[in-house]
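Task: fold both queries, return tokens.
Query 1:
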Amino acid sequence: MPGGEALTGPLLKAVSRSFFLTIRWLPQAMQDGVALGYLLARATDSVADTSSADSEEREQILSLMGEAVAGLLSREAESELLHALGGALAEAQSNPAERVLLCRFGECLQILRAMPEGQARLIREVLATIVEGQLWDLRYFREQSTVTDDAQTREYSYQVAGCVGKFWTELGLETMGKAFCDPARKQVMLEAGVRYGCGLQLVNILRDCAEDAARGRCYLCSSRSAWLGRAERYLRDGVDYSTRLRGFRLRFASMLPALIGLRTIQLLRQRPEGERVKVPRRTVYACMLQAVWLSSVQRAS
């Protein structure tokens, strides 16, 4: 990926130090694809969350970003998009790293065009799904303040996170083949990866429910305890998924978010509903040790 490391390395570290460390544990073959996919998704998420901009304006920019990733914009239209991203939208970001990310979105697109076709295709597919979920979020909560059924929660969780589990699995098989996992288990791993991603998103929803409500967004319309149980099951599926990968570094990088998510669920059950929880640093270190232990032995396929 010519020139990619100069952008994705430092910029990824700036926008997400924890995810940067996780990616560094991945086998080299997967690092570029995962890093670029994350940066593109983080850029679209930054636009979706720019509360100082009108929601219809954000919707328009998000749609154009999705088309740019898909390679559907003319050179003139892409130039206009990049100008818009580097202007008021970038200035509105409270996180300086996200400001830089929006200003350098065009470089991310150039790196995408230089990637091997198989990896580029997977990145475009997952970004299309993520942007679809972000657009739904903007459009739906422009008129409503809460979801009306569990199917909406499940679909949204898939669009913004479950699809990432699918992407992660397909990218691993694309770049590593049987060194990633048993190819005969591809469908089982794809389904488990989707559940894993959805579980991580449900933890985010459950943790942020008070803040989301203050913004006029409620992503759950049924029992909180039931969703906690579902999130826990999905994350345990994520641990199982990770143990079936091949190679210590791959298992460790895949497993750590699930273990931290499970500890977050424990805290959510212990605290009153609506109280913000954060996993202490010492607990993160404990999760890392647990991930090392569980990653040391590969389960039979």
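Query 1 returned. Query 2:
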Amino acid sequence: MACREGCGAMSRWVRFALLLAVLGAWVAVAAQAEAFRNLKEGDAAPDFTLKSTAGQEIRLGALQGKAVAIAFVHQGQEKSEKVLKALAGLDPAVAARTEVVAVLVDTGEGDPAAWVGKMGVSFPVLLDPSKEVYAKYGVFVAPATGVIRPDGVFQGEVAGYSASSKEEIEGLLKVALGLATVEQLSAEAEKAKPVELSKERKMSERELEKAKKLLDRRMKDKALEAVKQAVATDPSYAAAHVFLGRLLLDASDKNADEAQGHFDKALELDPRDADATVGTARVKTVKGDFDGAVSLLETAVQSASKPERVYYQLGIVQEKAGRADQAVKAYRRALEAVLGE
């Protein structure tokens, strides 16, 4: 009998825990789906007047003429703090035409003004002690951020906080300001999605990394074999072609034509590839076309991620051409690029 009672008690606790889990999941889903229960796109945003933590009286209606980002937050809550910091770092083009306000719906413990000061935000954080505005907007759970158009009409909402919240809020503001359409933002988001690499590209990348490590160990022949395998595995991998061209030139000037074939292929795949352009300049240098090499390097330095390498190669070309002054100037530019001067 005792066992049955004990087991029954355990069963009730299990059911209670399950119920809590279900409720928690339901709240999370509902919060993501609907941050503002009393508003939908196209509704007039309810006006209100609240005092800020600095004692300033702010009326929402007085902010018309600009878009408004309004964030309902909890004091001391990590996600709320992240929302405030995200709103403080909006894209300058958007921020210039936007008023940001936060509504503190729960002050928790401590001085709200001190907490806001710690956040380092310049926009007003308003106090809603009776939660009247919180209720008027039908906020389901904070943090929740709404965007209002310059004419006072509600544009949309972002519930909670995630890594993409800032971009989502900026997107809503751009639409509210007429800087973009929903279709344009959707197209941009689609382009920004990471491209799934093919099996061949992944294998080629591994071979290229292997070649670099082998080269670091001064195992040049094995490095050459590995990078050739990288090119054979994925002929559309521009970086592998560039690296192979470099190793061929390093091995012997007699490989200049073969190396140029790989630099040409890399430039065919990516015409802006500065490393492939530098490689072509090296081939021209080997063949005595110093002016052609200089011209290419002066172009490449404008788009190179590491201009010091381009300047250094330019110094080598000028030195081989017998232009000592120009060589010193190029080497100096390489040093300045390394030092960030």
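Both queries returned. Flag for query 2: The first helix runs from residue 2 to 33.
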